[in-house]
């Protein structure tokens, strides 16, 4: 007859199908760790308890421990063990271990969802302008290809993409010559200064003649003669002269003067000589424009006193006295 099974701890008789070697009470009370040992062997295939992976720790682990670290080492994140376990569990692989900060002086392991390539510290310090690129990408909708900084010494301001000068707004006014170059680019589209046509000296931004001051003064290639004789310049000089003489005229008067070809007194055609040149006639008392006459008629009116009524009376009296001496009647219709 087969011997009855007995509990190894309390010697109680056991059922035939009992595989633990302990009664139910001892098993449930985990006497001598029998329950933990049984469960560990069923789960892991071995009854031996694993120990913490850190050599200087050596604590025994629970049977359901999957990561191989004791609770003390795990929750204190010793050597990043908790980070390693949680990231591997979240990502499903160890690829995150290859993601480190691209700053060679940093080398921190990045989060699995990090897309900037640098850690938060290097990002806040704007390493390699990462923060600038990120902020610009949010504003522009895309990440700029190149980030340029101001060329001025000691200045690290980031320039706009369309900045062709190489200096920020503040340094444009402090660095000598930069603002002049900026104005040249704005007006001409290039930083290169055009050379003088006479001596190849670089010209100023607002130079319109194409010649430097020296060549213009020396009338190289006849530049002064051409410039002074241009219709636009002559028109401006004429209007300025009328204003200096306080002549009162309208736009219609200017048009009449420009279109006049014959003297309004003697009907002679205007010419370039002094006697036949075009002259503006005005009332010296009121300053109003009267008409356009030749140089000879203008000189004659001036010598006769410019008072037309008095001039006509004197001329008529002089002509009448001569006619009476000759015994003739003066022909009034001759005086117009």
Q: What coarse outline follows from CA principal-axis ratios?
A: rod-shaped
How is the biggest beta sheet arranged?
2 strands, antiparallel
CATH topology of the largest domain: His-Me finger endonuclease fold
Query: End-to-end distance, in Å?
Result: 173 Å
- The appropriate CATH architecture of the largest domain is 3-Layer(aba) Sandwich
DSSP helical segment count = 14
What is the CATH class designation of the largest domain?
A: Alpha Beta
Number of strands: 2
Structural class: mainly alpha
> Stretches where pLDDT falls below 50 for ≥5 residues?
none
* Nearest-integer average pLDDT: 76
Radius of gyration (Å) = 54 Å
- Helix coverage percent: 25-40%
As laid out across the biggest beta sheet, the strand order is 1-2
């Amino acid at each position: 007859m087969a011997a009855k099974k007995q509990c190894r701890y309390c010697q109680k008789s056991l059922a035939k199908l009992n595989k633990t070697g302990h009664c139910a009470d001892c098993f449930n009370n985990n006497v001598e760790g029998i329950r933990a040992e049984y469960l560990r062997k069923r789960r892991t295939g071995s009854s031996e308890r694993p120990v913490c992976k850190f050599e200087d720790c050596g604590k025994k682990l629970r049977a359901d421990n999957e990561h191989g670290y004791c609770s003390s080492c795990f929750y204190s994140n010793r050597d990043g063990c908790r980070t390693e376990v949680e990231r591997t569990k979240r990502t499903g692989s160890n690829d995150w271990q290859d993601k480190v900060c691209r700053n060679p002086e940093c080398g921190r392991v990045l989060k699995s969802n990090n897309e900037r390539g640098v850690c938060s510290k290097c990002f806040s310090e704007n390493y390699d302008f990462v923060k600038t690129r990120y902020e610009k990408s949010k504003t522009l909708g895309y990440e700029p290809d190149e980030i340029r900084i101001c060329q001025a010494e000691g200045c690290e301001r980031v320039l706009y993409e369309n900045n062709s000068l190489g200096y920020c707004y503040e340094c444009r006014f402090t660095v000598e010559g930069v603002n002049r170059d900026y104005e040249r680019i704005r007006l001409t589209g290039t930083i290169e200064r055009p050379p003088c046509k006479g001596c190849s000296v670089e010209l100023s931004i607002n130079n319109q003649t194409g010649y430097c001051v020296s060549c213009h003064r020396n009338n190289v290639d006849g530049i002064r003669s051409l410039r002074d004789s241009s219709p636009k310049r002559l028109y401006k000089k004429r209007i300025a002269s009328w204003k200096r003489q306080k002549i009162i005229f309208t736009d219609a008067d200017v048009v009449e003067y420009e279109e006049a070809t014959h003297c309004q007194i003697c009907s002679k055609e205007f010419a370039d000589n002094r006697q036949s040149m075009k002259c503006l006639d005005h009332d010296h008392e009121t300053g109003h424009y009267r008409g356009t006459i030749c140089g000879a008629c203008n000189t004659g009116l001036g010598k006769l006193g410019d008072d037309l009524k008095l001039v006509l009376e004197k001329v008529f009296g002089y002509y009448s006295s001569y006619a009476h001496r000759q015994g003739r009647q003066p022909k009034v219709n001759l005086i117009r």
